[in-house]
Amino acid sequence: MLFVGDDWAEDHHDVEVQNEAGQTLGVVRLPEGVEGVTRFHELVGRFLTGDAGPSQVLICIETDRGPWVRALVTAGYQVFAVNPKQAARHRELLSLSGAKSDKGDARMLADMLRTRRHQLRPVAADSEIAEAVKVVARAHQTLIWERTRHMLRLRTALREYFPAAVAAYEELTLTGRDALELLAKAPTPAGAAKLTLAQIGTVLKRARRRNVEGKAAGIQQALRTVELGQPETVTAAYAASVRATVAVLQTLNTEIKTLEGQVEEHFGRHPDAEVYLSQPGIGAVLGARVLAEFGDAAGRYTDAKSRKNYAGTAPLTRQSGKTKTVYARFIHNNRLIDALHMQASAAMLHDPEVRAYYDTLRDRDVKHQAALRQVGNRLVGILHGCLKTHTPYDQATAWSHRKKTTTTT
To answer: Which NCBIfam families would you find in this protein's record (predicted)?
Structure first.
């Protein structure tokens, strides 16, 4: 077998090929792209003997995505993706001095693969539709996170020179279409105080708000509240920055809505979409996020425990002598854990069995966040079973063990 370390950069790859004894057979720097992949094939081909094929070539690299990784997997090589933190720890074993170079990292990755292959996770190629779902789902979530950041910046700016606007638009939310339109129309305290009930009401009607007259009167009253302010020149500068932020938020709202349609469209094409949508607390967008992060490669998760460990919902136990402590996993896929947290929160509101499980945990003095993680952990196990058998969620089957426990007690 051949063991290859691939230290990748934006435009090139430093590669080292080793045999099973750890001897270096070849070291080369390859360009990114078709030319680089072609030369990579030629490089490993020189060292393969007899009937050995691509499956006898094992590659270690610090990423699991991108055209380069996809090309290696498609060619039949065994590709192992390692976390940069794992690689850094192995580098410390080989070099106590702290020396680091691209060629040295390629050698370290090849050695790590040769000596610790049983501890590394191979890249399991997802289907094309799953990859497409990942692209649009992540882009959609990223835009939502960006909108939140810009909203917080907008709120901070308003509090600096126009706090009445924060109070006036609090019920509408600062990312709402109507609040943004009113801020764009009147970003200064003087201009906002001149807004009439008719002007405010028209904006609220376009946003399809209820009780337009009452809301318009409340907003007008809040905007005309006498408060401490900034000098006129400073206020004008703040107003200019607020207009720019409002324009960014309006654009983000439009693109988020557009991408949401793309997420639903791509997710709906996936053969497991029905199974995901049957899970408690999961809709099209949330289902797409969970599918995107778990992937759909066959055999990636050998059992429910391995899926839970990857999700980061399973607890982490540390034991030394008589001391034993249980922690939440802080190293996890942030996108996946965020989606599972949202699923658990929503499932408690709509599924009585999920709510009963949560209440049982709370009765044991488990705090809210810890109980929510345990609910999410259980839901991941249920999802794994449903995907394994390709059957929709069935409440009676999923929670039958709890009924048996209750009956026994």
So the answer is: transpos_IS110
